[in-house]
Amino acid sequence: MSEGRHTARLVLKGHIIDSMMLPQVMDLVMDLGGNFTIEELKVGQHKTDTSICRMEVYADSAEQLDRIVQRARALGATAEHEQPVRVDKVVRDGVFPEGFYSTSNLPTEVLVDGRWIEVASIEMDAAIAVDRKARRAWCIVFQDARPGMEVVIGHQGVRVTPLERSRQTEIFSFMGSEVSAEKPKKVLIAGIAAEMRHVRAAGGRILVVAGPAVVHTGAGVYLSRLIELGYVQVLFAGNALAVHDVESVLFGTALGVNIASGLPIEHGHEHHMRAINRVRAAGGLRQMVESGQLEGGVMKSAIEHGVEIVLAGSVRDDGPLPDVITDMIEAQRRMRAALKGVRIALMLSTMLHSIATGNMLPAGVRTVCVDINPAVVTKLADRGSWQSIGLVTDVESFLRELAAVVETGRHG
Fold first, then answer.
1. Whole-prediction pTM
2. At residue 198, what are phi and psi to the nearest 5 degrees?
3. Would you say residue 45 has pLDDT above 80?
């Protein structure tokens, strides 16, 4: 090592091979113009064993070394002699301190008074609040920032843990987050169904984020079946899914097109407005179900089976239905609250609601994105190599096959 070089010692612990943390840190150091020496490497002998690596990192300047260490932290590395987390106080409502730590969706811990504390409710693009007395740390969004609250600044004393490869359902490991219309869909769907059974057996919850195409394509009956079988605990959607679902039950159409024949109906364009009016007259979807005016459909199944429903509105909504939350901040709060315990999310033909949901999910939640548009699937499925699956396909054929596999228990 030449004179004047700056050094730091990094420690990598956990499933550093499976998670690709070790090769990623090595590549990072070299890409940023540094170098490294592996001082210790112990590799776990069994699947459940963790590994440890200690490496010395060299750089030509303090700024270059700081950049390398900061980026390595984001991949899960820690400094050998870690310093405690730094905090600053919120001064104004809704404004984080300058230099706040911006979170990823990976499991994160902070070092407070000599102890590593897990950050609760982790999600990407948020900040970390710390309560030293309660030894608690949790994610907050801008709207949660209150004067006097302590918020983490900088990267010191922050530790993230990359995800290890899936060991329960190898279909996620095998397919990764690649997006293609050529995937073996029956094999994929069987694997997704197996993961859903595993989640339910372990007491986890399943989230469905659904767009109106679920109704337009005639797939509503299959989503209803999944709900009835106990494989949907949370449903996120917009005004359109609920409106067209009610329209399909009352008039047999979706946006005026007959679902059975695919043919437009005379004056059918009025049907969705008449459906909205009926729901508003009843006082809401639940009242419509309880009074017997809504005799079928996704919303009826969800209400009768205790599914937690969050309908978030948009500026283009007709009506909207009384059940739709039109305050976006409140809709986000309701969605975040409903995500507790969710272990797998099916995102079905709705780009905006799926992006919003994806931004709120911890990285460990399995995600399945289904859309006929490859660009949508690419955007939503890029959440990590081993916990996401993207399928470019018709949502009706996907839900039909999934419902059949879940109900019969057949594989492949």
1. 0.84
2. -60, -45
3. no
